[in-house]
Design brief:
two-stranded antiparallel sheet, rod-shaped, Alpha-Beta Plaits, 3 domains, 10 strands
Length: about 475
């Protein structure tokens, strides 16, 4: 049963009670007998019936009146909700003020009941009590009528911040507030639709714009990315070089390298990095933290070594990783698929790769990268020399943690001799440098970096001779 039908039934019921009251009210009047000292109650069965019908009438009338108020706008609601209370209060105050002048039996009984005959102060006290009661009830009525405004305020505050609510808003109150509730839910629906579209767009964009990239750019989602606009950040570039140890055809090389990239790429994502570009024989990745880049490199070298050991064929991959840190400029192409990384860091990284190839190291990183490690990050490494780039020197270091334990321990034991040899070489003290590298090679004959330096010292000494 809808509200309109129920209201009609209640209205008919109320009219029926009103008609019944017209006939029964005399029995109620006969039951309440006024006297000089108050009232005497003498209820008969018909009087009780009359009282019951009267109570039912007021209850049904009150329900009808509330239904009437709920269909009003706030301004009319405030007026009509306080009107009956104001009329009752005004009538009571006017009657009590003039009750001493009234000589009918009912007025005399009321004066006796309220003890007004004894003192004028008692009369003023009843007026004061009525005023207090009126103000309290008036406050409660206005508070109940305006309570939905607080719900509207919360909803608008939330929607103003662009936040959608999963459930519909419930405002309550009169018809005007129901209209506002409907409008707020329409706005909320638009926000939810927008959120859903953004979620779908972000899920789609993650294929091309990984979350790590958005974090690096300082963006919360794809909707915040301005295509074509470069963002300058300090970050760490990682170049991973993957080369088969045998000559392959172009197709074989492509398929074989791809099988290793499927191992490398997830590790980059795991360490909060993202792939800048895939190369024919490797990739370049970007990290916001230098420490993550080095930890990822160790994981890559370990994973590639395990894959090599599991290969049934003799064909394996040689892996070299070079890392450099510095300011870089990154932008997203207009197709939302093209990532462009441009800065002198990329040029310096290519030079570090050349040194890495020359020294035969597994993992080479710059001093700038080393300076960005946290104090709690520790691993074994050694200084391998300086690279001159754009009129500045870049100190380079080789990680020793990427070697097997036995080889790592040997390299750690000759670390001081090796680093002293590198410093002697930088100072052009080739005799001392050659002696140092000779000592290293006697202890670690397969140290390729020492072998390179030893030969370079020999060449320099032969040139002088």
């Amino acid at each position: 049963m809808d509200m309109k039908t129920s209201t009609k039934i209640l209205l008919i019921f109320n009219i029926a009670l009103l008609i019944a009251n017209v006939f029964l009210i005399k029995y109620l009047a006969e039951a309440i007998v006024p006297t000089e000292s108050g009232f005497i109650l003498n209820f008969s069965p018909l009087s009780w019936v009359a009282l019951s019908v009267l109570v039912l009438f007021f209850i049904s009338f009150l329900v009808l009146y509330v239904k009437f108020l709920r269909n009003l706008r706030l301004s009319n609601l405030l007026f009509f909700s306080t009107l009956p209370l104001t009329l009752i209060y005004g009538t009571f105050v006017a009657y009590i003020s003039q009750i001493e002048m009234l000589g009918d039996v009912n007025s005399m009984s009321i004066r006796a009941l309220l003890n007004i005959n004894s003192s004028k102060n008692v009369q003023n006290l009843w007026i004061a009590l009525a005023t207090v009661a009126y103000l309290v009830l008036l406050f409660v009525l206005i508070l109940l009528a305006c309570r939905p405004l607080r719900n509207v305020e919360r909803a608008i505050e939330r929607l103003g911040d662009g936040r959608a609510k999963m459930d519909d808003y419930r405002i309550g109150g009169s018809r005007q507030f129901r209209e506002i509730e409907h409008s707020l839910n329409k706005i909320n629906y638009v926000y939810k639709e927008k959120d859903n579209k953004l979620k779908i767009a972000n899920l789609t964009a993650q294929k091309y714009l990984p979350k790590a990239l958005l974090n690096f750019l300082g963006k919360k989602g794809i909707e915040d990315v301005e295509t074509g606009k470069a963002v300058s950040r300090e970050g760490t570039l990682l170049h991973c070089d993957l080369k088969p140890n045998k000559t392959l055809t172009l197709e074989e090389n492509f398929n074989y390298i791809n099988s290793y990239l499927k191992v490398v790429a997830p590790l980059i994502k795991r360490y909060d990095g993202f792939v800048d570009k895939y190369l024919g024989d490797g990739l370049i990745a970007v990290f916001s933290k230098a420490q993550n880049a080095v930890e990822c490199s160790h994981a890559i070298l370990k994973a590639v070594a395990e894959k090599n050991s599991n290969q049934k064929k003799t064909l394996n991959i040689d892996t070299k990783i070079s890392i450099h840190t510095g300011a870089m400029s990154i932008s997203i192409g207009s197709d939302e698929k093209t990532l462009v990384t441009s800065s002198h860091v990329l040029s310096a990284l290519s030079k570090i790769e050349e040194v890495n190839d020359l020294l035969g190291a597994k993992l080479l990183f710059s001093k700038k990268t080393l300076e960005n490690f946290s104090n709690k990050f520790h691993f074994d490494y050694r200084y391998v020399g300086d690279l001159e780039f754009e009129k500045m020197m870049i100190s380079l270091y080789e990680s020793l943690d990427c070697y097997q334990k036995r080889a790592r321990e040997k390299l750690k034991k000759v670390k001081n001799e090796f680093e002293n040899g590198v410093r002697f070489y930088n100072e052009k003290r080739y005799v001392e440098a050659k002696d140092m590298f000779e000592k290293v090679l006697k202890k670690v004959p397969d140290d390729h970096a020492s072998f390179v330096y030893f030969n370079k010292c020999t060449e320099k000494l032969n040139e002088v001779a």
